[in-house]
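Structure in, sequence out. Go:
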């Protein structure tokens, strides 16, 4: 019972977070992931804590960087290390 309520709270908290994010983006603001300060969307660094901000390319910041790395090259890449430049 209690667990159920707790997960509900979690759920609602998530919703609040989502909505506040939306709210912020509507105001051209965002929240610093480090100190949770309300900062401008187009700043590179948080004015409060100086944390580097990922500048959102799009409206939603939801997309997680999903790099599809399929570099399954069957080529036998011999170790070609450029160690020619000896200083
Ligand atoms: Zn910050």
């Amino acid at each position: 019972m209690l667990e159920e309520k707790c997960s509900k709270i979690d759920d609602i908290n998530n919703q609040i977070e989502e909505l506040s994010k939306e709210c912020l983006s509507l105001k051209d603001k965002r929240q610093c992931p480090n100190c949770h300060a309300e900062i401008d969307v187009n700043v590179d660094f948080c004015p409060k804590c100086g944390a580097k901000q990922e500048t959102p390319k799009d409206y939603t910041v939801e997309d997680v960087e999903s790099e599809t790395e399929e570099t399954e090259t069957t080529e036998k890449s011999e170790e070609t290390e450029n160690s020619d430049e000896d200083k």
